[in-house]
Amino acid sequence: MTDRNVDPVLVEIVEGTLASVEMEVETAIARTARSPMIRDAHDFRAGIHDARLRKLTGRSYSALVQPIVRDFPIGTMRPGDVFFHNDVYLSEGGIGHLPDLCVTVPVFHGGDVVAFVQAFGHHDDIGGAVPGSMPSHARSAFEEGLMVPPIKLWDQGVPNRAALTIMTRNSRMPDSLAGDLDAECSACLMGARRLGELFDRYGREAVEACFDAIIDKTTETFRRELLAKIPEGVHIWEDYAEHDGVDEPRLHTQRITLTVDHAADTPLTIDFTGTSPQAKGPINHAGDYADGVFLKKWLAPILRNLADTPERMAELDVNEGVVPLIRMVFPEKGTLLTPIFPAPTNARTFVILRLLGVLAGVLAKATGGRMPADQETIRYTGVYGESDDGPYLMREVLGGGSGGRWYADGEDTIHVVPDSRNIPVEFAEARWPFRVERLGLAVDSGGPGEFRGGLGYDKHIRMLRDASFMSIADRSILSCWGVNGGRAGRPFQVTVDGVEMEGLVDDFPVRAGQVIRIRTTGGGGWGSPYDRPAERVAADVRDGKVSPEGAREDYGVVLSVSHEAGAVDEVVMDVEATERLRERLRETRPAAFFDRGPGYPKLSGGLPHAEVDTV
């Protein structure tokens, strides 16, 4: 426990310094990296850990220091050392797929290691069967790219040129890879100097006491404010990935049995027993390492939805303090969460993102719906080919709508990675041989509900040269589920000149002049759509978020709409017709607490909902 004599003012100073250093490291990477994925899309993050390998910062998730210390004991580390790894199976669960490259720098004070600064991000290409190192039909990790176990990339300030040469030689984008790694190493070394100054200023004993206080505060806050709201008992729910790139689409189950015992030292037990066997294709996630410590910190942000207010939720960081509150039980080796090397993992987002929803779903059952509906806010789409400047790869991580909440609509086009963004149109058109003809919200994509699901993107790309299209996307059959009477959102969809693509595509040929249309997922709705005030539905139609047809069919609101210059000009509601229609529609109450949309019966053999969907 925390030393009660620790200076609370100093704790605030140390906590603020940690956040400032983390932000400075990320800013330095963003300003000096070369690849669009790192520099523009911001698909990377930094983290600060103490000498006990505990994550101190909570603005974003990060990888782990455990694999570095496992292979390079702390006593052997020297100032100027930089460690590197991307090997999924030797990362202790901290790395999900090979394009995520991780650098770790020890912080020194008085000759001893006192902390670590780490950065990892999704890089353009690290080799493998297809550009981008994410072959959607891979059957083995050896098809996915270059695997690097923990190595010393810099030795006391001297870069390991041989290792860098090997890595860049294996990449289709060697200049971007070299530039990104240089940016990340330099930024982490800078962050290590900043933290060293903190120890020099206040002394090791005082700063480490503050570290303990920061972590203990998180433990007690989560226990007192959040976990206390979950009724004791056993709660079960499951959700599914729909395809793995090899087998025909089917339900790949991820199940959580949540046991809550407030009197126990570890009040939450998350048991993944019942999760499907590992897939042939690349949707597996190696999560059963280091007692599941990465997954504990990955899943814990869902608990923040139990906060009293949205404002309080935003104040709660997730650091190592959540780890003592959660015990994880993994099934035997050979499941989606416990794959056996060399099972492929490049599309592991299908599992770890779904697990966020499974935990939200089981908590919704336990709390009477006091959790958001489902969201699926990450998928990779892109094109590659030849331009005047040589080979190119454009890969973008487009977000989708978040789920409706018990107090508000979902957010439109968000992304699970903090501070990430889509690639600016102006940058894309100047760099690559295509034209973006539309980038807007996908009308009617959000799940209908008293609180509507957020909308996804609708993006149209016209190719100016022949190219190949690629996609790593789930929720193209199954929708983001609605809860407590809310309806499912619309699934992901890609068409090329009207021809619908599968969610997992490596190399579909696209000819010059053809249009790729990408519509990302809408979040699920919360509560009955017939309880949404009709005036708000009319406002959604005016704002272009719901069509007049959607207003009538999904919400029971009858409107007459006039248009001018292609835009909605005036919306008039027929009050009496709306009341009659809603009265009739309310009689068709959903049979289950969750609505999975029309895709679920297609994969379940005609079942309207899963057995676990009722409360």
Give the arrangement of secondary structure elements.
Elements: H1 8-32, H2 36-39, E1 44-50, H3 66-71, E2 82-85, E3 100-109, E4 112-122, E5 151-155, E6 158-159, H4 161-169, H5 174-202, H6 204-226, E7 233-241, E8 252-260, E9 268-271, H7 293-299, H8 310-315, E10 326-329, H9 349-367, E11 379-387, E12 390-398, H10 425-431, E13 434-441, E14 457-463, E15 467-472, E16 482-483, E17 493-496, E18 499-500, E19 504-510, E20 515-519, H11 534-542, H12 548-555, E21 559-564, E22 567-573, H13 575-585, E23 594-595, H14 599-604
Parallel strand pairs: 9-10
Antiparallel strand pairs: 1-4, 2-3, 2-5, 3-4, 5-6, 7-8, 8-9, 11-12, 11-15, 13-14, 14-20, 15-19, 16-23, 17-18, 17-20, 21-22
Instruction: List the total number of helices.
Output: 14
The structural class is alpha+beta
Uncertain residue ranges:
none
- Strand fraction equals 15-25%
**Termini separation:** 39 Å
What integer value in Å does the Rg equal? Answer: 25 Å
Overall geometry: globular
Spatially, the strands of the biggest sheet line up as 1-4-3-2-5-6
Instruction: Assign a percent range to the helix content.
Output: 25-40%
- Tell me, rounded to a whole number, the average pLDDT: 95
Q: Please outline the major beta sheet.
A: 6 strands, antiparallel
Total strands: the figure is 23
Domain Hydantoinase B/oxoprolinase: 7-529
Region (Disordered): 592-615
Protein name: Hydantoinase B/oxoprolinase family protein
Pfam families: Hydantoinase_B (PF02538)
